[in-house]
Structures are given as C-alpha cells and as structure tokens.
Write a structure and sequence with these properties.
single chain; about 350 residues; alpha+beta; eight-stranded mixed sheet; 8 helices; 15 strands; globular
C-alpha cells in the first residue's frame, strides 16, 4: 500500500497526515511504510482512512508492526475487532485513540513551544479524554463484539493512545495509571516542593472532574466493572517521533530528549542527544497493564521483554508484579535544530 500519495482532495486530508507528509523526510516515511508489512486492507479503505483520520490508522500500523516484532500471528479474515490473534494463544485487540474536542486542538495543532502551566489540570483533562475513548470501546464490545465467535472465551485487549491535544505525550503513563488504578502523582507539588513533599508522592484518587463539573470514576481495574477487558496496551511514544527515531536519515538535524528508568527501575534518567547518537527500539515505551478481575486473562509471557513494562497480579504468589527494568523508555520528545545563516 502507498500511504503518502493522496487519494482524496486536499481539503479532506487530516492535518496530522499533511504535517508528516510535508516534512518530505523519506527515511521516516519509509519506517511507517515498513510498519504495514503483513497488514491486509480488509475493506479497501485503509489508505483513505490513514489520510483523512490519520491518528487511528497510524496507531493500527504501529500496533501491527509491534505484533510482528513478537512473532504474533494475526488472522486478517475477520473485519473486527482490529486484530484477531491466533498464536501463541488466541486473543483479540481493539485499537483506539483519545482525540480532541472543540475546546482543545489536536496533537498536531500549531501551539506555543512552552509546556502547559497547570499540569494537574492538563493531566485531569487527559484522563477524561482517555476514559471517554475507553468507555466507547467497552460499550462497542458489549454491543457488537462479545458474541462474535473469534472473540468469545478469549482475552480482549484495548490498545489506546492519547492524541487529544498538543503536548499529549507529556502525560506519559500518568493518565493510564490514573484511569485504570486510580494512582496519581501531583506533579505541580513535586516541582514546587520536591520529592519529600507528601503531596508529590503517588496517591489514590477515585474520580476526576470534567470541565462542566461532572465527576468521572477512575480506578477501573480495581473492581469487576470492566471485567471483559483483559489488559490495556499503552505507549505514549508511539508517535511521529518514533518514526524519526527509527529512521536511518544520515543528515538528520533532530535532537531527542528522553527519560528512561535506571537503578532497578527506582529512578529516572533524562538525556538529550542528536539523532546520530540516539537509539530507540520499536517496542520501547510499551506499557501493559493487566486487569486482575478480567474474565479471560492475557498471558504475561506473550509480550515478555526487558523493554516492555508489565503490571499484573500473580495468583500463585498473591501479590502484584512489576516488570520494569533499567533502560525502559518513559518519555521522548523531538526538537529540530535550525542553523542560522
């Protein structure tokens, strides 16, 4: 499939598609083309949807490449859910993204280069958007997926990403941890008072509040309310920056700033370096949170890799297991160096 030759009128092209196409970075575009290896256009509309809606299709391409990386076999004869896996064990994946509404620009909107000032408000709104997308897919499962033979009696996994505003990647894992487990860290308190502050330590929350004052429950994996969802795959670094990081551009003027775990996953290490020195793997940044109350559990061994964070309940040991290792990617941003004449 040729993803970058327009098949619709210019005014129908998604701004995100236009933005990456106009960079004319053939090396990074080739990375995205490579992600599509093995994918099948089941309804003949994938290229059109990639160009007109962009973010959901971009996410599907990345997920397809990730599954290929783990030698996971996909049965494309089924049109839904997005991925029907047959080996190493049968399970299904539905991909979705959190998108912006009329109050916020998309992740590709022009914006100030300055980070958001009110981090707690930024995070809270992002949690709401992520929760909206999660709830919509859960409802779709109950309404139309649950009775399908390729879905019944198998693990059902959500793969979800935030594209709801500029700087969406800044939230890193904060939003998904809050949504699923009600675990939140007050970043504003940390920046003002330091790590010894009581407020800056991780704490439990039960709700966040929408802009209209309506409460939204979080901690969805703390009970049986979403037992049909086996796990959530999340990667805030699965963006255009991932394609730039994986590209083989010999003359790149990009600079990467990244944060990864160190000291046995206890501390974080931040570093900035040019493209020529920076390395990143396709699966870096993946976080898989398993639902301990799921009707059908996803085996943790399927995605076992030192680069992949996993969080699950071990029935035999009767405790939580954190699979986190030095070098696991938490965050990455990309800047462009422009030389003055």
């Amino acid at each position: 499939m040729d993803f970058f030759t327009p098949v619709v009128a210019p005014f129908k092209l998604n701004p995100g598609f236009v933005k990456i196409s106009c960079t004319r970075n053939r090396y990074a575009l080739d990375v995205i083309q490579d992600w599509a290896r093995g994918i099948q256009d089941r309804d003949g509309k994938f290229v059109k949807e990639f160009q007109t809606s962009f973010q959901p299709s971009f996410r599907e391409l990345y997920l397809c490449s990730t599954l290929n990386n783990f030698n996971i076999c996909i049965d494309f004869q089924h049109s839904r859910p997005d991925f029907v896996v047959t080996d190493p064990e049968a399970f299904t994946i539905e991909a979705t993204v959190a998108l912006n509404d009329s109050r916020t620009g998309s992740s590709h909107s022009p914006s100030s280069s300055e980070n958001p000032e009110e981090l707690n408000l930024f995070n809270e709104e992002a949690i709401v958007k992520l929760g909206n997308s999660f709830s919509a897919k859960r409802a779709k499962f109950r309404r139309s997926y649950s009775s399908l033979p390729q879905v019944t009696r198998k693990a059902f996994v959500h793969a979800i990403e935030p594209f709801d505003r500029p700087f969406a990647h800044l939230a890193a894992q904060r939003t998904v941890e809050s949504l699923l487990f009600g675990y939140y860290v007050d970043e504003e308190a940390y920046l003002k008072e330091g790590e010894l502050s009581e407020r800056s330590r991780g704490h439990k929350i039960k709700q966040v509040v929408k802009h209209n004052g309506a409460p939204v429950d979080v901690g969805l994996f703390n009970g049986h309310s979403v037992k049909e969802i086996s796990a959530v795959i999340f990667n805030s670094t699965a963006t255009w920056g991932k394609a730039l990081a994986l590209s083989k551009d010999p003359q790149s003027n990009y600079v990467f700033t990244a944060v990864s775990l160190k000291n046995g996953g206890v501390l974080a290490d931040m570093y900035t370096m040019p493209k020529s020195s920076y390395t990143e793997h396709l699966i870096d940044g993946i976080r898989i949170n398993h639902n301990p109350y799921a009707t059908h559990s996803l085996a943790a061994d399927i995605f076992r890799n030192r680069r992949v964070y996993q969080f699950f309940w071990d029935d035999s040991a009767q405790n939580w297991v954190y699979k986190q290792h030095d070098g696991q990617l938490l965050f990455r941003s990309v800047s462009t160096v422009i030389e003055k004449c």
